[in-house]
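Lab notebook, design round three. We kept the backbone fixed and only want residue identities now. Task for the bench partner: fill in a sequence for the structure below.
Input C-alpha cells:
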C-alpha cells in the first residue's frame, strides 16, 4: 500500500528577490556597521579639495584681481579696470608673443602627432622583434631628459660652429649653415623643432598604447578583403585612436601655448622678440619690469586661450559610445 505524503506548505516569498526600491530604503549608508549620513563621503574629499582651493583656485582668483590694477608688486596699486587687457591686444610686442605661441603649435603639436602616428603604426607591425623595443626606448628618451638640459644641448648643436652646421658643411651644404637660434628667420622654427623632438616620444607611446587595445581580428579581416597598410590605418587604426589623439593634441597644444623652459634656455626670447612667448613675457613683466598687473592680465589671457583650444579638442575626441 502506497504511503501517503503529507502536504507541506512552502512559503516562497522568502526566496523572492526584494524590489530594488525597498532594498535601497532598507540599506542605509554604513561605515563600520554604523549608519552614516551621505555627507560623510565629502569628509574624505575635503583634504584634497582644500589643497586644490588653496594652491590652485585662490592663485587664479588673485591673478584675476591683480590684472585689474597697475601695480609694481610692492607699492600702492592703481585701479585700471580692463586697461591691462586692452593693452595686451593692442601692444605689438605683447600680441606678437601670443602669435608666436600659436605658431609653435605647428611644431609642438602637429609634427609630433603626425610623426607619432606613423612611427607607432610602424612599430606595431614589428612588435615581436627586438627592434621595436629599441625604437620605443630611443624615441621616449627625450621625455626622460630635463628640458633645461635638452635646451642647453640643442643650443650647442644649433650654434654657428655646432654639429648641425658641421654635418651640413660635410655634405656640401655649407651655404645653408647659420646660427640657427640667432637668425630672425630661423630662431622660432629651431625652437619649435626642439619642442617637437621632446614631445615626439610621448605622443608615440600614447598612440602605441592605444593601438595595442585594437582587436587584431579587425586587421586580419581587412587583409582578407585585400586592404593595404594605408587602408588599414585609415579605416581601422585612426578611428579607434580618437581618445588617444585627443590626449596627444591637448597635451602638446598646452605645451606650445605655455612654453617657457626651452625658449628661456635656448634664446631667452631673442633675437629681438622673434621667439618671445607669453610664458616668457609674463616672467619678464613680473620680475624684470615690475608690471605685476600687466603680467597678471597676460596670464589670464593665456589661461583663457588654453581653455579655448583644449576644451573643444576634448569634446570632439570624447568617447560617444556610452
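Proposed sequence:
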Amino acid at each position: 500500500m502506497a504511503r501517503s505524503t503529507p502536504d507541506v506548505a512552502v512559503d516562497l516569498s522568502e526566496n523572492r528577490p526584494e524590489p530594488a526600491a525597498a532594498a535601497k530604503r532598507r540599506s542605509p549608508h554604513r561605515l563600520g556597521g554604523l549608519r552614516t549620513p551621505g555627507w560623510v563621503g565629502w569628509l574624505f574629499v575635503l583634504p584634497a579639495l582644500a589643497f586644490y582651493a588653496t594652491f590652485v583656485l585662490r592663485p587664479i582668483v588673485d591673478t584675476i584681481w591683480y590684472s585689474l590694477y597697475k601695480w609694481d608688486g610692492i607699492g600702492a596699486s592703481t585701479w585700471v579696470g580692463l586697461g591691462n587687457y586692452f593693452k595686451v591686444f593692442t601692444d605689438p610686442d605683447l600680441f606678437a608673443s601670443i602669435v608666436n605661441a600659436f605658431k609653435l603649435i605647428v611644431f609642438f603639436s602637429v609634427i609630433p602627432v603626425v610623426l607619432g602616428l606613423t612611427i607607432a603604426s610602424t612599430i606595431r607591425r614589428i612588435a615581436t622583434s627586438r627592434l621595436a623595443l629599441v625604437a620605443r626606448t630611443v624615441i621616449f628618451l627625450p621625455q626622460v631628459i630635463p628640458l633645461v638640459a635638452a635646451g642647453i644641448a640643442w643650443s650647442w648643436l644649433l650654434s654657428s660652429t655646432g654639429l648641425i652646421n658641421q654635418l651640413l658643411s660635410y655634405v656640401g651644404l655649407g651655404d645653408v649653415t647659420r646660427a640657427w637660434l640667432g637668425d630672425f628667420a630661423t630662431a622660432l622654427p629651431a625652437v619649435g623643432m626642439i619642442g617637437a623632438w621632446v614631445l615626439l616620444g610621448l605622443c608615440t607611446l600614447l598612440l602605441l598604447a592605444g593601438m595595442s587595445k585594437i582587436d587584431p581580428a579587425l586587421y586580419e579581416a581587412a587583409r582578407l578583403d585585400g586592404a593595404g597598410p594605408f587602408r588599414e590605418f585609415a579605416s581601422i587604426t585612426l578611428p579607434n585612436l580618437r581618445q588617444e589623439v585627443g590626449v596627444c593634441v591637448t597635451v602638446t597644444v598646452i605645451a606650445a601655448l605655455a612654453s617657457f623652459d626651452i625658449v628661456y634656455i635656448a634664446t631667452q626670447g631673442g633675437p629681438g622678440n622673434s621667439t618671445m612667448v607669453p610664458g616668457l613675457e609674463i616672467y619678464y613683466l613680473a620680475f624684470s619690469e615690475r608690471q605685476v598687473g600687466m603680467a597678471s592680465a597676460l596670464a589670464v589671457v593665456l589661461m583663457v586661450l588654453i581653455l579655448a583650444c583644449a576644451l573643444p579638442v576634448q569634446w570632439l575626441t570624447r568617447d560617444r559610445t556610452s
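Keep this in mind before ordering anything: Residues 1-10, 23-29 have pLDDT under 50 and may be disordered.
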